[in-house]
UniProtKB/TrEMBL annotation:
Modifications the protein undergoes after translation, according to the UniProt entry: Binds 1 heme c group covalently per subunit.
Residues in coiled coil: none
Name under which the protein is recorded: Cytochrome c
Entries under Pfam families matching the protein: Cytochrome_CBB3 (PF13442)
Alphabetical list of PANTHER family matching this protein: CYTOCHROME C-553-LIKE (PTHR37823), MENAQUINOL-CYTOCHROME C REDUCTASE CYTOCHROME B_C SUBUNIT (PTHR37823:SF4)
UniProt binding sites for heme c: 56, 59-60, 95
Organism: Paenibacillus anaericanus
Keywords assigned: Electron transport, Heme, Iron, Metal-binding, Transport
Signal peptide (from-to): none
Length: 118
């Protein structure tokens, strides 16, 4: 075989390998897809209280003291904003998922607000 064909093939193979390496998702990306990504929001306590009053207190009590759902008054000491965001998004046990009822930003804001409760 002629030398230039060999080296031509070699360069094409290298190019393909490079494209594959760049296009395959890295491990980090795969991990992020399994976990809902919390949007960045600036905490608005007022807005969080409104959302909680309409969506959460029926089960968690109007002082978040607990009812059907557990007490959330010191939940920020146990769970981070990201963990809270994931629970509100997907639900947990008998708690319904809120991803179709609230906007992502609203859930993130409530998560931030609850994370401050320590
Ligand atoms: C229909 C009743 C109901 C509603 C409405 C509800 N929850 Fe819950 N929630 C529960 C129950 C029941 C649990 C306990 C789930 C379990 O651990 O199995 C729970 C658990 C939680 C937890 C986890 C507590 C822990 O210690 O792990 C958080 C955080 C939470 N709820 C936040 C909220 C927020 C914020 C809202 C409003 C957006 C809300 N919940 C609305 C019933 C509800």
């Amino acid at each position: 075989m002629q030398k230039w064909i060999m080296s031509g093939l070699f360069f094409v193979a290298c190019g393909l390998a490079l494209v594959l390496m760049l296009s395959l998702p890295g491990k980090e990306q795969v991990a992020q897809e399994n976990k809902p990504q919390m949007p960045e929001v600036t905490l608005s306590a007022e807005h969080a209280e409104t959302v909680v009053a309409t969506s959460c207190i029926s089960c968690h009590g109007d002082q978040l003291e607990g009812n059907v759902g557990p007490n959330l008054q010191k939940i920020g000491a146990e769970l981070s904003a990201e963990q809270l965001y994931a629970i509100i998004n997907k639900g947990k046990g008998n708690m319904p998922a809120f991803k179709d009822r609230l906007k992502d930003e609203e859930i993130a804001n409530v998560a931030l607000w609850l994370a401050e409760k320590k």
